[in-house]
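**User:** Here is a favour to ask of a fellow structure person. Please take any protein you like and set down a full record of it. No explanation is needed for now; the record alone will do.

**Assistant:**
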Amino acid sequence: MEKALKLFKSLFKNKKGSDSVLSFFIFFLLLTSLLFTSSASINTGTTVASTLKNIIKQVVILSGACVLYNFFSNIFDIKRCKRYINVWLTLELLLLLAAYIWCKIHGSINGNYSWITIGLGPFQFGIQPSEFAKVMIILAVACLIGDKRFKNINSKWQMVRIPAIFLALYCFVIFILQKDAGSFLIVAIVGVSCFLFTNNPKLKGCRRLILFLGFAAIGFYFYCLFDENGRKILAKFSVTFAARFAAVTNPDYNNDATREIFYSLLGISNGNLLGVGLGNSVQKFGYLVSSDADYIFAVIVEECGLIGIAAVFVPYIFIIYRLIYYSRQMEKESDKIILLGTVVYLAIHFLFNIGGVSGFLPLTGVPLLLVSRGGSATFSIMSLLGICQNRISNYYAEKKAKSVFIN
């Protein structure tokens, strides 16, 4: 009973030694999320009751995310994680398959087969397992490759096979079965990036191959962006995705696949210096269907102008800076991989979302982490940030113990 009470109390406080600056900007973004998702959800199709319901649902989601943040900050154990990582990787794969089967039975959501919907009283919650795949791949590389020298193993494949196999399986299920191109790209980029953060000299050839494939992918991206033949190749996989590439250079109001991008750009241009005022966005009134999710940044800029941009950019810059700063201090490779993997996770979501809604990149439908409405993405990143805080706290504890030992 005493242990259970101690664990319950730990859910509502940060672990000693965690970075308070990091926590401040994380919670600032969550408050920004509550404010603007509430504003963006108010349109011609809502009533007072439905608006209140949306706000309560978002409060529940953000509260649960904060509990997860403190939970992992306090109880995460890297040794235990290494012991059970194969079990968690397998469970995540089963969840991805379960989401596909669920959507096959109940119908796809926006053409994707990546959701499991659960009804709790008057609320409907959607679980997207692909969001948790990003966390699992980061932990897999950190636990199964980080800090290991593989002295008795000569084969590179033996070193990387478990995280590489699971990364390939996740990507196959997400892209081929679930048909979720945005999540596939992020899972692939996050997973491959984590392999680059390993220092094992035996994996130098693998890192070079990854870099080569990365530059090749960038080249193919620009080929599809500026050449009609490239978009024809994309259209064989997804007509909608090819249209989104075309919309970067020529947003088309008459195309159903890209009309929302046109309205998003219109909303951003209306923001000017100070915006049209909180709650006064025009584009949220039916023009942007996902105004509180994928297009939340367009609503923020339209309503608050440059102040809204700063409210998103400044916290993100500080969070990423703090994580990079601590990654450079870490002595353990596993801790470094976790922190830098989180940086890539945050940065790629940020780049893809804001680049998409502002017309600089093809829209991928990924949320703006810590700001967009949604549970799975918020739970996923808050859990990972809690793990980062745990490793930062552990770093300070080990540093203090060493100083005491030396003295």
